[in-house]
Amino acid sequence: MTTTTADARKLYQQVADAVATAIRRQRYPAGGRLPSERDLAEEFGVSRPTIREAMIALEIWGLVEARHGSGIYVTDGAKKAAEAEPELDIGAFELTEARRLVEGEVCALAASTINDEELEQLGRIVKAMIAENDADVAGEKADRSFHVTIAQATRNAALVTVVEELWDIRYKSPLCAAMLARAREAGSRPLIDDHQLILEALGTRDPVQARQAMRDHLGRVIEDLLAATEMEALQKARSETAARRVELARRGSI
Q1: Which residue from 61, 8, 23 is spatially nearest to 174, judged by alpha carbons?
Q2: Count of CB atoms situated within 10 Å of the CB of 112
Q3: For residue 182, is pLDDT > 80?
Q4: What torsion, rounded to 10 degrees, do the Cα atoms 144, 146, 151, 155 define?
Q5: What's the angle, vertex CA 67, arms to CA 63 and CA 68, rounded to 5?
Q6: Alpha helices (runs of H) in 115-190, residue ranges in sequence order
Q7: 214: closest CA among 226, 225, 228, 200?
Q8: Contact between 201 and 212 (Cβ < 8 Å)
Q9: What is the pLDDT of residues 75-111, one digit of tens each?
Q10: pLDDT tens-place string over residues 3-44
Q11: What b/e sequence results for 93-109 when a residue is b if at least 16 CB atoms lie within 10 Å of its CB, and e otherwise?
Q12: Alpha carbons 81 and 20: distance in angstroms, whole number
């Protein structure tokens, strides 16, 4: 089965709905393991990020669970949970892809309009971002401020609104919020070096260099999200293994 652009639903929804239907029809029985991410991507003709979003959606719905780092399994209560699947809106991969396209062009325009005062402001924001990372502050306010300030430097109110709305989706979309929370738990933080490179590119007043710096940054954000959500199951498995070792040691001391 492959997804189709004629379907008005988002790609991750198409995949999640198809797998949910397969679960209801017991193609994947309770306790059974779903095909690998690679196999699902080939089956549906979509990317790994889309499969990752679909699996997290299914987990939020209560249909599947990551188990012992060995894969995704159908839960015992999947059939009942499948009867009421909420709308989860936009995923983090989809959002970041949109940001990469939009903010790349915003950064290119800003390179030709930004002034020295705004460059200095961005420098201060990068320092605030470093402080937030060091203090493990959630919310990434400095990161948002950095990107919105670049949009403001374009002198285009419409672009500022678009960039602000893209950032706000991170908190409005349940799926996006869940994915970003998991990535943060796995150690994902704002990429300081990338923001410094963007600032330096803007300082050259070269639109081509600024565009590429922003696009490279958001491309790395996508890779970081993939790695973080991939590591989540492994970290969970390690934690469970460590707990079992402690319990076995306790039993052995009796």
Answers
A1: 61
A2: 13
A3: no
A4: 130
A5: 175
A6: 116-134, 141-152, 157-172, 174-185
A7: 200
A8: yes
A9: 876 555 444 455 567 888 889 999 999 999 999 999 9
A10: 555 555 678 888 988 998 888 888 888 888 999 888 999 999
A11: bbbbbebbebbbbbbbb
A12: 10
Burial of 71 (0-12, 13-18, 19+ CB in 10 A): middle
Q: Which residues does 32 contact at the CB level (< 8 Å), separation at least 6?
A: 73, 74
The predicted model gives 154-162 an average pLDDT of 97
Alpha helices, DSSP H, located in the chain? 11-24, 37-44, 48-60, 78-81, 92-111, 116-134, 141-152, 157-172, 174-185, 192-203, 207-252
- Is residue 60 classed as helix, strand or coil in its secondary structure? helix
The answer for 69, left when phi > 0, alpha when psi is -120 to 50, beta otherwise, is: left
